[in-house]
Specification:
It comes from Arenibacter algicola. Helix content is 35%, strand content 16%. The protein is of the alpha/beta class. Strands 3-2-1-4-5-6-7 form a 7-stranded parallel beta sheet, with helices on both faces. The two termini are 12 Å apart.
Length: 235
């Protein structure tokens, strides 16, 4: 694990998807982190509260290029994602899961943002016969082509936690995984479900430290969080 300080003072971060489960945890962590003086949110709807550090931009995320003059920060955290159940239209699904992260990465590159983090998924593969995995894999490749110096792609397994919206299939899967987690050990540990707080905490640490891996799988995300969750500063 290659680590080194890139500790920046008075940083600004951009979050895409702060109204989501993982994005919500990430937002609270950054608001409580004194290294960050401004958090810019780009989303379709308001998070519903104010804070001295917050700067909300209510925008059409499918047309992110129109807002590139305000897309300025030290780091970008992309927590955008949908499901087939929530977005059954294939074209719209691709616009969200592929289009938004890739547009954000391209703007980040143009604007000189040097750290870009995106939540993908375990199983992401541009050659996959499964459309969900294929789109995620294509997104990863397109993001990497942008050449942002510090790019990290997190590939979590099923994300736990309670959502405000009801996703019956996902809820059933989570109940099943709660039982299955006990037998997923050793090389199978990466298939265990993972809490959104763990993903968010790992993202904050990665943003403030050098790390050798670009694609980071679920078990590795957990190890990062467990190793550094009690430290507020870089190692």
């Amino acid at each position: 694990m290659g680590k080194g300080q890139i500790k920046l003072k008075e940083k600004t971060a951009i979050i895409l998807g702060a109204t989501g489960l993982t994005g919500g945890f990430l937002l609270q962590m950054l608001l409580n982190d004194e290294r960050y003086i401004k958090i810019r949110l780009f989303s379709r709807s308001s998070i519903g509260f104010s804070h001295p550090k917050l700067e909300e931009h209510l925008v059409d995320l499918l047309n992110l290029e129109s807002y590139k003059t305000n897309f300025l920060a030290d780091e970008v955290f992309c927590c955008i994602g949908t499901t087939k159940a929530k977005t059954p239209d294939t074209e719209m699904y691709r616009k969200i899961d592929f289009g938004i992260p890739v547009s954000a990465a391209k703007i980040s590159r143009i604007n000189g943002i040097e750290t870009f983090m995106v939540i993908s998924s375990m199983g992401a593969n541009s050659k996959s016969g499964v459309s969900y995995n294929r789109i995620k894999g294509e997104m990863e490749e397109a993001v990497l082509k942008c050449g942002i110096p510090n790019t990290y792609i997190l590939q979590p397994s099923l994300i736990g936690g309670k959502r405000e919206e009801k996703r019956i299939g996902e809820w059933l899967a989570k109940q099943f995984m709660k039982v299955l987690n006990f037998v997923l050990v050793g090389p199978l540990e990466k298939y265990r479900s993972i809490d959104p707080e763990v993903i968010a905490g790992s993202m904050v640490w990665l943003a403030n430290n050098n790390y050798d891996s670009v694609r980071i799988q679920s078990d590795e995300i957990k190890r990062i969080y467990e190793s550094h969750s009690n430290t507020s500063e870089t190692d």
